[in-house]
Amino acid sequence: xxxxxxxxxxxxxxxxxxxxxxxxxxxxxxxxxxxxxxxxxxxxxxxxxxxxxxxxxxxxxxxxxxxxxxxxxxxxxxxxxxxxxxxxxxxxxxxxxxxxxxxxxxxxxxxxxxxxxxxxxxxxxxxxxxxxxxxxxxxxxxxxxxxxxxxxxxxxxxxxxxxxxxxxxxxxxxxxxxxxxxxxxxxxxxxxxxxxxxxxxxxxxxxxxxxxxxxxxxxxxxxxxxxxxxxxxxxxxxxxxxxxxxxxxxxxxxxxxxxxxxxxxxxxxxxxxxxxxxxxxxxxxxxxxxxxxxxxxxxxxxxxxxxxxxxxxxxxxxxxxxxxxxxxxxxxxxxxxxxxxxxxxxxxxxxxxxxxxxxxxxxxxxxxxxxxxxxxxxxxxxxxxxxxxxxxxxxxxxxxxxxxxxxxxxxxxxxxxxxxxxxxxxxxxxxxxxxxxxxxxxxxxxxxxxxxxxxxxxxxxxxxxxxxxxxxxxxxxxxxxxxxxxxxxxxxxxxxxxxxxx
Length: 502
Hints:
This protein is of the alpha/beta class. It folds into two domains: 3-270 and 482-494, Aldehyde Dehydrogenase, Chain A, domain 1 (3-Layer(aba) Sandwich); 275-461, Aldehyde Dehydrogenase, Chain A, domain 2 (3-Layer(aba) Sandwich). The protein contains 16 helices and 21 strands.
C-alpha cells in the first residue's frame, strides 16, 4: 500500500480500525498482561480519549526486569549467532514497514504529529534504523594487543545485560527505536518505558519483534507514569544501563537514581536551545530563511534540537525578518493531523499548549516584538493547537531566548558579527545543535570549532543519516544516538590476559 496516496477519509477509516486492534496492556515475557491501574490516552486534536492504557507500577517493572534478566541469562538472544540475530532484526524492520499504516496512525492520534510527517520521516526512520543496527551486529569487533610471546591479551565487547530505556513523546516510535534497536543489536535484553502520553505504537513494535523471531522476554514494554514506572526502572538493582531522553531536570534525576542503586551506566539526551547563525555573507538568503522556518516549526517545534534561536548579523537583519515574516506565517498549514495536507498539528497535551502560550505572553511582556502568531488558530479551539509564532528584537537575556519552549516559537536576535554570534550561541547551559550560514569556508571552520554543540551544520540545518552521531555537549546530555557508536555504547569491554607459556 502506498501510504502517500491516502486521503483524509482513508486515514480516518484506518484510525478507527487500528484502535480496535491495538493492544493496551503491558508487554512482558512475550505476551500482553494487565495492570492494576490505567491511563487514558488523549487525542490532542480534539481532547477525546482514544484508549485506556495499562499503567505499570514498581511490581510490573520488577516483573519485566526479571523476564529480561532470565532471557539474557538463558542466552537465546544474547548468545545467538550474530548472523541469526541479524536475520531477526532484518525481519523486524520489514514487519515495521508492513504494519506502517497502523503504526503511523497511532502516533498521530497519540501526540498530534501530522500523518504526512509519519509517512515521510518517522516510519522510514524507524524501519531504516532497525535495519542499520542489524547491519552493525557483525561489525562489533575487539582487538588483540601486541604482548610478549608467552602471553595472549585480547579485548572483547559484550552486552551489558538488561537495559532500561525511557523514551519521549515527541517522536514516540523513532526515539524509542534509537534506544531499543542498538541495545537489541548488541545482544542485550530491554525494558522500554515509553512516554505516558504516547505509548500505543511501542506496544505494537514489541509484538512485531516477537513475530520476527525475537525470543520472549528480550523486548518488554511497560507503560506508566514517569514518576512511578520510570523511576522504578532507573532505581532497579538488576538493570545494568539506563537510557533516557527527556528534560534536563529528569535527566539529572536519572544520574541520582543510578548512584542510589547499583551505579548503572546512564545515557542521556536532554534537550537544547539550539542557535542558527546567519551571517551577512551567507550564500542564499531564501534558502537560509526556508531552513530557519523548517528548523523551528517542524513537528510543532516539539524537537529537542529545534533551531529556535535565530542569530542574524545586523547587515541582513531587516531583510531576514521580512522574509521570515512573509513566508513563515503561512508555510506550515495548521489543521487535523490526519489530513495529509496538514503540516502542523496540535501540541501533545493541553498542558503543553498552556505552557507554550505562557512563554509567548512572557516574550511580549519582556519587550520582544511579536511579528505573527501567538495564539490558538481559529476554528481549532477544541484541540491543543498553537499558531506558528515569530518574535523579533529579542535579546539573549529574555526568557524566550534562554528556556526550552518546546513549541512553534521562533526568536530572532540581532548580532554584530561572528565573534558576538558565537558568544551569544554559547551563552546557554545547553549544547545540542547549532548551524552556521556563511560563504566563507575558513570562517565556517573556525565557528564550528568554537561552537559548544554536539552537532553543527553549515549552510543547512537538521540534515542527517545513520552516520551522524546525534547528541550534545553540556547539559544536553552524554548520549550518541542514531549511529554505529550507539550500538557500541550498549556494550562493555572485557580484557583477557592469557598465559600461554609451556
